[in-house]
Amino acid sequence: MPGGGQHAALDPCLCPAGVRTGRGPQADSLGRDDGSNRSPNAEWVTVKNTGRHAVNLTGWTLTSQRTHVTYRFHLCLGGHRQVRVHVGRGLDTMRGVYQNRRTYAWDNHCDTATLRNDHRLVVDTKHWNHR
Q1: Number of DSSP helices (H) and strands (E) in the chain, helices first
Q2: Which residues contact 65 (CB under 8 A, 6 or more apart)?
Q3: CB burial class (10 A; 0-12, 13-18, 19+) of residue 102?
Q4: If both were cysteines, with which of 10, 49, 97, 102 could 124 make a disulfide (CB 3.0 to 4.6 Å apart)?
Q5: How would residue 119 be classed by pLDDT, with cut points 50, 70 and 90?
Q6: What are residue 33's phi and psi, to 5 degrees?
Q7: First to last CA, the chain
Q8: Percentage of the chain with pLDDT > 70?
Q9: CA distances from 126 to 63, 118, 129 (A)
Q10: Burial of 51 (0-12, 13-18, 19+ CB in 10 A)
Q11: Does 11 or 51 have the greater pLDDT score?
């Protein structure tokens, strides 16, 4: 990561620059909660690199405040790229990674996704309240 800057975030962009949580999150999977892998995979949060340079996200975490579920990243996110973090099982690609859980990670109605870097510093948060 050139210059050691923080260039990742959750969408919509909540940080002045860098990695952020992106679109979403989609906390309530669409359709019936039928216990299939499709249902938890419909829960996701997008993490977006808003900077020009790649960011090594290895050691970074994405955590639910309500359920305390934590995903640990093992990837490098290219400049101006984003990755969707799905809850269910699947094969990781450059566009989507999977927590490999059989149960849900996000509270459907009220939760906060927190993105922390490898030094445990908060880089971005995304809160939703659909009550």
Answers
A1: 1, 11
A2: 111, 112, 113, 114
A3: exposed
A4: 10
A5: very high
A6: -85, 85
A7: 40
A8: 68
A9: 11, 19, 10
A10: buried
A11: 51
CATH fold for domain 40-129: Immunoglobulin-like (2.60.40)
Element (H, E) at 102: none
Contact 123, 116 (CB under 8 A): yes
39 phi/psi in degrees, rounded to 5:
-65, -55
Angle at 60 (CA atoms; ends 59, 62), nearest 5 degrees: 135
Nearest CA to 58 out of 44, 41, 70, 75 is that of 75
Alpha-carbon gap, residue 12 to 23, rounded angstroms? 6
What residue ranges do the domains of the chain occupy?
40-129
Which amino acid makes up residue 18? Answer: G
* Type of residue found at 99: Q
Phi (first) and psi of residue 41, to 5 degrees: -70, -15
Give the integer Cα–Cα distance in Å for 26 and 89: 16
